[in-house]
From TrEMBL:
Keywords: Membrane, Transmembrane, Transmembrane helix. It comes from Candidatus Kaiserbacteria bacterium RIFCSPHIGHO2_02_FULL_54_22. This is CvpA family protein. The keyword Transmembrane applies. The chain crosses the membrane at residues 28-46, 53-72, 78-100, 107-135, 155-172.
Length: 173
């Protein structure tokens, strides 16, 4: 083996491992970005709004699951179908957030900083679990096996789905 061939193999291995590390990090980056968005939203707008957002996630999903006009949404191409379904869910969630924001008053509710961090993380994982099991995300984007292990199993969906509600039960006073 010449020095050039050896260097080429090292370069190939380094590139392969760098791409693998970046792909793994990028999937966890999605969770981190969602977590950060929810945390900053709660930090700047108010912690009671995080409770409203989490409750709106559930209410939006309930109406989304019973939505009678799903056949009118586009089914192809995959990205258009994904954006249409996510847009419908986001719109329903926004409507329920506005309603719940009027009901959940910050004077009667307290969530500490630790609770805000935990609830933001649970909200982010809730959205990833929805992406796996409700929206056709896997047709558009392929997650790494590490994220697949956490979210792809049908048995885990129930726990990811109920985690924010359990967190609210214990952390919101």
């Amino acid at each position: 083996m010449t020095a050039t061939e050896g260097l080429a193999q090292v370069n190939t291995l380094a590139t392969n491992y760098a791409f693998t590390a970046w792909n793994s990090a990028s999937d966890f980056l999605i969770i981190i970005v969602l977590f950060t968005a929810l945390f900053l939203f709660a930090w700047y707008i108010g912690r009671a709004t995080l409770v409203s957002v989490l409750m709106a996630f559930y209410a939006g999903y309930a109406v989304y699951a019973a939505f009678p006009y799903m056949s009118y949404l586009p089914t192809a191409p995959a990205l258009t179908a994904l954006l249409a379904q996510v847009g419908l869910y986001a719109g329903l969630t926004l409507v329920f957030y506005i309603i719940l924001r009027r009901v959940v008053v910050s004077d009667f509710l307290y969530v500490g900083i630790f609770g805000t961090i935990i609830l933001s993380l649970l909200g982010a994982t809730f959205l990833i679990a929805l992406a796996y099991h409700v929206f056709p995300v896997t047709e558009v984007y392929r997650f790494t096996p590490a994220i697949d292990l956490l979210f792809a199993a049908k048995q885990y969906f129930f726990w990811w789905f109920t985690a924010p509600a359990i967190g609210l039960f214990f952390l919101a006073r």
